[in-house]
Write a structure and sequence with these properties.
alpha+beta, about 35% helix
Length: about 210
């Protein structure tokens, strides 16, 4: 049986920035303690298609959000603000997690997490935009055709926290920078696909009916 000191040593990532290699072991803290669920409401009249988020317009595979096609027929919806992290809680395996960069309203099937530390928002976002978190949610999900994550279980998700806030911020900055590069390359790829599609339509003759 491992001692407490052995367990403490094991809570150190294999890859670490040089300046933090002697910073000590990490600890696990329940998600609820660092980014609790919020249940604020906003009137629908104050929301538009541009800042409304539902399970339909959060994109799969951590792909961000699209403009909503329609608004619900209700008086109010969940409120979120820039810096919150949103999770579509229907069919979590679709990996619909988004770090909000504007304020707006969300459907009831979208969970809104608000990091207690404003500097830790991006860190929490990367923790949730992770297959490890998605697998955890699915392990406790209920339902077959349209599984939903168990909210109480999600609140208890063990979030790894480094001993120094600066290490947390550097990790978030590193991963966010990579996301920006991936986004730019994705746009380039989409542009090339559209270019090819246009060229093929013009390079090959079409039979006239």
């Amino acid at each position: 049986m491992r001692s407490k000191s052995d367990k403490k040593k094991s809570l150190v990532p294999r890859l670490r920035f040089p300046e933090f290699r002697e910073a000590g072991a990490w600890e696990f803290i329940p998600l609820e303690a660092i980014a609790p669920l919020v249940n604020d409401r906003v009137q629908l009249k104050d929301i538009s298609n541009v800042n409304y988020v539902s399970t339909e317009n959060i994109l799969q595979d951590f792909g961000g959000v699209a403009v909503a096609n329609k608004l619900p027929t209700v008086n109010s919806v969940s409120s979120f603000q820039a810096g919150d992290v949103l999770l579509a809680n229907i069919r979590p395996y679709l990996k619909k997690v988004w770090a909000a960069n504007f304020s707006g309203g969300a459907s009831n099937d979208v969970l809104v997490f608000r990091p207690r530390n404003s500097q830790g928002g991006q860190y929490v976002a990367h923790i949730l935009k992770n297959n490890r978190f998605i697998n955890y949610v699915m392990a406790g999900a209920k339902g077959v055709k349209m599984p939903r994550g168990d909210i109480n279980s999600i609140k208890e998700y063990p979030v790894p926290i480094p001993p120094e806030t600066t290490e947390q911020q550097k990790i978030a900055h590193c991963l966010s920078s990579l996301d920006e590069v991936i986004g730019l390359e994705s746009h380039k790829l989409d542009a090339l696909k559209n270019l090819k599609k246009g060229l093929m339509q013009q390079l090959f003759p079409q039979e006239v009916a």
